[in-house]
Design brief:
100 residues, four-stranded antiparallel beta sheet, Transcriptional_repressor_C
């Protein structure tokens, strides 16, 4: 897993920097929520979280593990994606449950 160090503060007259570890999502060996995927880039669904009802609803829309999904656009809290040759609009909350 890759980490990025984030500078939190600089102390006056002291060159010590306070840092913290921050998880960085990468395509190599890691996953990220669909909401963080770039537009126009096909992604493979790695995991779908949420309740059984949520997972079934997403499956009915075509979101299945191993399937391909492409973010077309995001606007006003919704994510428009291409999945199984169809365009589907889902909420940001639903898109956060889809890991690619």
């Amino acid at each position: 897993m890759l980490y990025r160090l984030a500078v939190l503060g600089f102390f006056k007259n002291n060159w010590n920097l306070e840092t913290k570890k921050e998880k960085v999502f990468t395509a190599e060996g890691g996953t990220m929520p669909l909401t963080l995927a770039g537009t126009g880039v096909p992604q493979i669904i790695q995991k779908i979280s949420g309740s059984a009802e949520v997972r079934q609803h997403l499956s009915d829309l075509g979101f299945v593990v191993g399937g391909e999904v492409t973010v077309i656009s995001t606007s006003m809290g919704n994510v428009i994606v291409k999945v199984k040759d169809a365009r589907v609009a889902i909420s940001k909350e639903m898109a956060n449950k889809i890991m690619v």
